[in-house]
């Protein structure tokens, strides 16, 4: 509430210099408090707990019109990455694991196992379903700040798919590649459900 009033009605406060410091301290304290509560949660659920709590606070602040850069945004950026990587590992397993394993290799340095070669073909044929699974997972898991989280997913899948293409560029597997634009278009079409 204090944060909302400070950002929404700054004209009620005498000088910005007098209230901006305490406001930053308040948001830092909220971020610290969420992390401390997270330490008391089952280890397997810590990321989801902290992430959901941060999304709840940011969603409430956004709905009230109080949007400024704060310690909560920093915490969000950290945990949205954890959350999305964890979720991609479950629902876009091939892309996630392939890029993680091979991101520092290119062309001739790349030696693919028979399972990876099968994975290339399976990913090409199934990326649409993988994107849909990610959409469903985000929709089910993130009740607050969902559009912003989904936008981060679109950026992340674009980054991963770009790396995927760079890794395979110049190899005989080029025919198994799906253009980045197709993957982004597929992912973007679901964002309207959160708007």
Question: SSE layout and pairings?
Answer:
Blueprint: H1 2-8, H2 16-39, H3 46-63, H4 71-91, H5 93-102, H6 114-141, H7 146-168, H8 180-188
Helix pairs in contact: 2-3, 3-4, 4-5, 5-7, 6-7, 7-8
Protein architecture, described:
By secondary structure, this protein is mostly helical. It has two domains: 1-78; 92-195, no CATH class. It contains eight helices and no strands. It has helices spanning 2-8, 16-39, 46-63, 71-91, 93-102, 114-141, 146-168, 180-188. Helix 4 packs across helix 5, helix 5 (93-102) crosses helix 7 (146-168) and helix 7 (146-168) runs antiparallel to helix 8. 25% of the residues are buried.
Helix content: over 70%
Oligomer: single chain
Residue-averaged pLDDT: 88
The number of distinct β-strands equals 0
Secondary-structure element sequence? HHHHHHHH
- Count, helices: 8
| Radius of gyration from CA coordinates | 20 Å
| Large-scale geometry | elongated
Uncertain segments: none
Biggest sheet descriptor: none
What is the number of domains? 2
- Class by helix and strand content? mainly alpha
Q: How much of the polypeptide forms β-strand, as a percent range? A: under 5%
Q: Span between N and C termini?
A: 25 Å
In short:
With 195 residues, the chain is mainly alpha-helical.
Features:
195 residues, mainly alpha, 2 domains
């Amino acid at each position: 509430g204090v944060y909302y009033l400070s950002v929404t009605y700054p004209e009620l406060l005498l000088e910005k210099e007098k209230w901006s410091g305490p406001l930053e301290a308040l948001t830092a304290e909220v971020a610290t408090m969420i992390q401390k509560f997270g330490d008391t949660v089952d280890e397997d659920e810590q990321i989801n707990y902290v992430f959901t709590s941060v999304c709840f606070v940011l969603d409430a602040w956004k709905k009230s019109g109080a949007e400024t850069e704060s310690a909560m945004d920093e915490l969000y950026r950290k945990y949205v990455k954890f959350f999305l990587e964890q979720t991609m590992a479950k629902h876009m397993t091939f892309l996630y694991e392939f890029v993680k394993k091979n991101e520092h290799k290119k062309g001739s340095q790349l030696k693919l196992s028979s399972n990876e070669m099968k994975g290339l073909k399976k990913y090409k044929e199934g990326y649409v379903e993988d994107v849909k699974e990610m959409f469903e997972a985000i929709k089910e898991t993130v009740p607050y700040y969902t559009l912003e989280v989904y936008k981060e997913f679109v950026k992340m899948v674009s980054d991963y798919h770009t790396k995927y293409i760079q890794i395979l560029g110049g190899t005989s597997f080029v025919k198994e590649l799906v253009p980045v634009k197709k993957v982004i278009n597929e992912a973007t079409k679901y964002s309207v459900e959160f708007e």
